[in-house]
Structure formats: C-alpha cells, structure tokens
Amino acid sequence: MSRLDPLAYLGDQINEFRVKGTYQRLRELHGPCEPISHFDGKEVINLASNNYLGLANHPKLKEAAIEAIRQYGAGTGAVRTISGTLDIHMELERRIAAFKHVEACVVFQSGFTANAGAVSAILGKDDHIISDALNHASIIDGCRLSRAKIHVFPHADVAGAEAKLAALDGVPGRKLLITDGVFSMDGDIGPLPALVELAEKYDAIMMIDDAHSSGVLGRNGRGTVDHFGLHGRVDIQVGTLSKAIGVLGGYVCGTKDFIDYLCHRARPFLFSTSHPPAVTAACLAAFDILEAEPERIETLWANTRYFKEELAKLGFDTGRSQTPITPIMVGEAAEAHAFSNALFDEGLFATGIGFPTVPEGKARIRTIVTATHTREQLDRALEILARVAKRQGILTATPRP
Q: Domains of the chain by range and CATH?
C-alpha cells in the first residue's frame, strides 16, 4: 500500500499562488551582480539588487578573497567558540567597531541571525519590546524568540511609541525600543533622534537595525547613528555585510560587556560555523574602500536624486521613500508581479513585492539604484518603466514638465 504524501497540501497552496498571480519563480543570475546583469540568459538593467556601492564584483574584494583561500583554505571547520575563530575574524570585528565608534562588535553569519540572535539573547518572558509596525522580519522573529511581551506602534509614529512606553512606565521588566534605520520596502528613514529621546526618558534599551543604512547614510556609510549625530546614545546597532559591503553576514555593535555576553548566549553565533576566510577577507577589503572612496556614496545619492525626480515627472507614486530604495506603488500583488514580469521581458529587472512582505493593497515594484549605474542606464530604465506602465494601465497621469 503506497503512502499518501503528507506534504501534498503545500502543492495545493502553490497552485493557489498561481491562480492569484502571486507565484514567483527564482531567476538565475549568470555571472556577477552588475548594473547590467544576465538573468535567465537575458541581459537586463538590474534595479533589483542591494549592491549599493557596486562592491560585490570589485577587483580588490575578489583579490582579497582569493588570497585568503590560499592562506587559510576554503572553510574554518568549526563554530567560533570551538576552533573556528580566525585572526581575520577578530580583525574584522575590531575594524567594524572602530568604524562605528563603539567599544566592540561581533559578526554573525547573516543580518537576519544578527537581529534574531541579539534580541532573543538579552530579553526574556518578563521583559517588553516596543517595535515599529514595519520592522524587518528578522527583528520580528527575534522578538518572538525572546518570549518578551511585544508592543507594536504605528510605523514611524513617535507619539504612538511614547504611548506604549508610558503605559509600561513602572511595569516590571526591561524595555527595548527597536526600529529599522532605513525601512527595506518603503525606503524611508526611521525617526531615530526622537526615538532616542524616548528611550532615555523611559529608561529603555535603544536598538537600531542599520542594514539598509550601512554604506548608504552617514560619513563613509557609517549608518543612521552617524547620520543623525547620535553616537553614544544608541545601545545596540545591527548592520549588514551583505548589501553595500557586497559580501555576506551581519554584525552587532555595542559595549564590550554586551558583545561578550552575545558570544556566550546568542544561539546563531554559538551554533553556526564561522564565516569562510574568503568572505571575511573580502569584507575587510570593502571597509578599506568605504574609507578611501567616499565618492562612491556621493555618486549613489546623485543617481538616487536623479532617478526619483524623473519618476515623479513621469507620474509614478514612490510613496515615502527618502533613500535609494524607491518603490513604485501599484496596489494589488498580482498586478505588481505582472508589471515586474513585463518589465523583465523588456530588459529591466525590478522586483514585484506583495503580501505578506508588504500589507494587502500596498504591492509595489521595488527599485534600487546603485553608485555604478550610468545616467544612460537609468534613462533607459525610466523609458522602459514608463512604456510598460502605460501599456499595463498602471501609469495614466500626464507626465509633468
């Protein structure tokens, strides 16, 4: 007697995705991540990557990775707490701590594990988390894993955050106030100065996830804390090595005692093999470039301003974006995915984003320009966006001069 597939219900769910028009197939990148990339054998303008500064294929990062393999091998063979800590792991952590103007830093295998590991390690069931409604999934999962009580305030609503904190004033347990620096789907910057004031007023731990701010905001890309001049007033800073840095991983910054504690209690750190030597060395090379070539960030922002201005002239709704993350609001998920597929057919890769990544009815195309896009490439992308949007019935407004 043959056994029925106990996972058959998942196939039914996938079919439902197809019927709704929200099924997405993984596109294959052939070759490096560049402004012009090859996906599924097709040459397209790439507005779908987080490679803000164009470092993912930088010669210096590749050379550093190759040399590290020659010196250390392909892998470390262990977790950090056993025999998997290389001298270059420690060098990278010291380098990041100095870059961020903090006492200490610990590197995690991903930005996701950095957030989830840090939050879940320092709080317990008697504690409280005050979290922005649009915080990243890694923050949400870290909050759930901590078993602390979660209090969500409306997105970027400082008064809403204060109401949550005021209601907890005098209630036993630690309080953690947490926000993204730049929100990954809307591209807006969190109200960090006002939130820091609240954390100090209500004696809460202040934490920021600077994944999309790292390499983008602040001097040489030091992030939101530097952008707002709040050094010494944010207790926990999380960053990424996977976006503007161009490689892989995440990191957490703070006091020496806090970082030392994470090395003893953060489960992703304790139970995951450490970064391969090539990854670590490439990250070090990326920080060299951040320090030596600030013009990359200037070019990123010049491209960002130009692209946003031209989208506005065409009549596109880019929501509340303030950064290189520029959504083009569409509405329904099926429509956004159809728009994305049509753009790809015309030579532009820009991802359709729908529920559950964003709320129902808030689907969009997410575009990200980089420092290495040329003006000609951006103009070509704008032409494709306008033409396809009109054909799809998404863009009906008359372009403004």
A: 21-50+294-391 (3.90.1150.10), 59-292 (3.40.640.10)
Run means of pLDDT, 10 residues per run, the chain, 401 residues: 86 92 91 97 97 98 98 97 98 98 97 95 97 96 96 98 97 97 97 98 98 96 98 97 97 98 97 97 98 97 98 96 97 93 97 90 96 98 97 76 59
Work out the number of other CB atoms within 10 angstroms of the CB of residue 283: 28
Catalytic residue from among 243, 308, 337, 362:
243
Q: Which of 212, 275, 362, 373 is catalytic?
A: 212
C-beta separation of 129 from 149 below 8 A: yes
> Which positions ≥6 away from 127 have C-beta within 8 Å?
146, 148, 149, 173, 174, 175, 176
Q: Is 164 a catalytic residue?
A: no
Q: Would you call 340 a catalytic residue per the annotation?
A: no
Look up 321 and say whether it is catalytic. no
From 184, 242, 274, 340, the catalytic residue: 184
